[in-house]
C-alpha cells in the first residue's frame, strides 16, 4: 500500500522536483532565521550559533521524519467532513494505520535534508568528545525526538475529532512544539517549561540531550544528565497520544448517511 | 428594517463588509487561531527577550519592552495580513469560476482585494486586540506614550493589510499563465515571512540582507506598521514609512491591474 503511494508520487516528476525544492527552501529560510538571531548576539540562553545548530539539526530532522510518517494526520478534519473516514472503519485494518498510510508525501524528504545538514555541520563545528556514550546519546535523542513528534501528530488527530472547525488549536503544540524544540529551554518562563518540557515534552527531543552532550546547563536547578531521560519523555508522549486517539475515536459518530 | 445608508449601496463597500462578516461565522476557528497565536507569541517573546538581554539590554535599537511590542504586535497582525501565499483567486482561476467574476459589472481585482481586506480587518478584533492585551499583561510590552503613534500606526496598519492582500492578488494572477501555482505560493511564503519581519526584526539582518529585504514589498506588510504602531519610529521617519507603504501599495495594485487585463485575454475556460 505504501509502495503504491510512493510510486504514484514519483511519477509526476516535474511537480515532485518543485515540491522538493520548495521544501528545501522553506527549511533553509527557517535556518536563516536562527542564523540571523544568533549572529546579532553572541549567545542566547548560554548557547552559541554552533551549539544551537546541533539543537536545530536534531529537532528539525526528528520533526521532518515524524512529518513524513504522520504529518497528514492534520487532514483528519477534512476526512471527517468529507466522510472519507467512514470508509476507513469498513476496512479490516486499524483506522490509525490507514490514516497514516493514506498519503505518503515524499516531498517532505526535502525537509529532512535541511535538518541533517545542520546536524552534521553542528557536529563538526563543536568540540565533541566522541565516545560510545556520545553516539548512543545522539541516536537515543533522534529516535526519541521522532517518537515524541509523531505522538504529537497523533494526539492532535485524536483531539481533532472534537475540534473539527477548531483544528488550528492543535497547531499550538504540534507546530509550536517544533518551534519550541529549536529553542534553548533556559530562556523559558515556567509556563513554557510545563507545557513544552512536561506535557508535550519536545524539550527532550533535542535541547536537553544536546545540553547533556555539550555539558552546557539546560534548565537551572535540574541535573545535566536529564538528556538521557528522552526515552521516558517519548514513552509519556506515546501514552498521551494513545489516550487522546482512543478517546477521539470513541467520540466519533460518523458523518451521517 | 432601517433604510441602508448610502455607502452601503456601493458594491465595493459591500465586498469589504462581506469579507468582514464571513469571518465571524467561525468562532471556534477564531479561538483556535488565537490559542496557536498566543503560544507562538510566548515562545517568540522568550527567545527575543533573551536575545536582547544577552546583548546588554539593547539589540539593534530594541529594548526588552520594545522587543515585546514587536513580538506581540506582529502576532496580532498575523490574522490580518496574508503572508501565507494562498488566495481564493488561485482556486477560481484553476477551476474556471473566474470567468463568472469577469462577467460581473465590477472590477475583479477590487472585489477580490476588498473582500480579503475585509477579512483582514475582522481579524483585528478576535486576534489582533487579544494579542496586544496578552502582550501587555504577560509579555512586558510597552505601549507608546504619544497619541500620534496610534493615529499614524492605524494608517500604517491599514496600508500594511492592503499591501499584503493586493500583492497576494497580483501573485495569484500568475495562474492565468501557469497551470500549477503551488510552487510560486511556496516561494512567496518562504521569503515573505523572513522579509516582513515575522520572526526577527529585519534590522537584525546583516546589511546586504536588509538592503535586499527593503527592495521588496514585504517589510511594508508588517515590519513598517509595527515600527509606527509601537512608537519605535516617530515624526518624519514615521511619515516616510507611510510613504514607502503607499508607494508599494500603488505598485502592487498597478501590477495586479495589468496582469488581470492581460490574463483576461489569455483566459481559456474548458468545457462548455
UniProtKB/TrEMBL annotation, chain A:
Q: Which UniProt keywords apply?
A: Membrane, Transmembrane, Transmembrane helix
UniProt entry tagged with the keyword Transferase: no
**What InterPro entries does this protein's entry cite?**
ABC-2_transporter-like
Q: Name one Pfam family in it.
A: ABC2_membrane_6
Question: Which residues are listed as membrane-spanning?
Answer: 20-38, 44-63, 137-163, 192-213, 225-245
Q: Which domain of life is it from?
A: Bacteria
Protein name (database record): ABC-2 type transport system permease protein
Automatic annotation (TrEMBL), chain B:
Pfam families in the record: ABC2_membrane_6 (PF06182)
Transmembrane annotation, as ranges: 124-143, 149-179, 186-205, 238-258
Record key words, sorted: Membrane, Transmembrane, Transmembrane helix
- Species this protein is from: Promicromonospora sukumoe
Write down the PANTHER family for this protein, in alphabetical order. INTEGRAL MEMBRANE PROTEIN (PTHR36832:SF2), SLR1174 PROTEIN-RELATED (PTHR36832)
Name listed for the protein in its UniProt record:
ABC-2 type transport system permease protein
